[in-house]
Amino acid sequence: MRLHRFIGDFDLSRPRVRVSGGHAQQIREVLRLRTGDVLLLADGKGAEAACRIIEMSREGLECEIEERVGNDREPALEVALYLAVLRRENFEWAVEKATEAGARRIVPLISRRTVKLGLNVERLKKIAREAAEQSGRAKVPEISEAVELGAALAQASGPNFLFEPGHPPFRSFEARIKKAERIGVWIGPEGGWAPEEVRAAEEAKFLLAGLGKLVLRAETAAAVAVFEAVSLYEA
User: Fold this and answer.
1) CA 227, 140, 228 angle in degrees (round to 5)?
2) How high is the pLDDT of residue 116?
3) Based on the domain organization, do 139 and 118 belong to the same domain?
4) Hey, is 99 helix, strand or coil?
5) What is the pTM of this model?
6) Closest CA relative to residue 217, chosen from 102, 83, 101
7) Half-sphere exposure of 148 (CA within 13 A, CB side)
8) Are 40 and 69 within 8 A, CB to CB?
9) Largest CB tally within 10 Å, which of 11, 55, 109, 117?
10) What is the DSSP string of 46-90?
11) pLDDT band with cut points at 50, 70 and 90 for residue 186
12) CA 121, CA 108: separation in Å to the nearest integer?
């Protein structure tokens, strides 16, 4: 039987684990689990355990660890997604799908053509946690505060790919990706990167790549780029 799985700020180093807040309410009132039932708890940092509910109250649940379990679903390649800020609902969709695709870190970018700001980072973290739960991931991606593109370019290290239509397909860099432990994928706003931003990326030794002949929405391109990076590395 498939066990219900939750990711949260759980201390799995001790024999017993306390579950409270929204997780406890969902377990008690929505899933209607009872004392004696077993569930999976993960800390979002790689640790996971099968735990049996031994006490229930309105304040929360007390669970006892029965078995520490491994999780081999986490992608070996660390992919950082740098995504220009989009409209709220579009950016949130991108965070959800990029998490499901395997992104390890998500950085909102402020580019020249960014037209919407004011992202709720705490809400984005919640979306990423729920997407990690759904997809069975061991780790929840780190969500950063928005940063200016210039500052992000100056701090970038390792192979970085700036996506822009008309450039060599991303898959043509497979050999380069397979040699890396971590990479950055950079997706511009709906209006695309400004020419001077592309030049700045080239001066920073970025590789320019495309995602095929079709023109994708920015949030779609973000999810596709992350998924393709993970797939190429594991192929």
Assistant:
1) 5
2) 75
3) yes
4) helix
5) 0.90
6) 83
7) 3
8) yes
9) 109
10) S-EEEEEEEEEETTEEEEEEEEE-----S-SSEEEEEEE---HHH
11) very high
12) 10
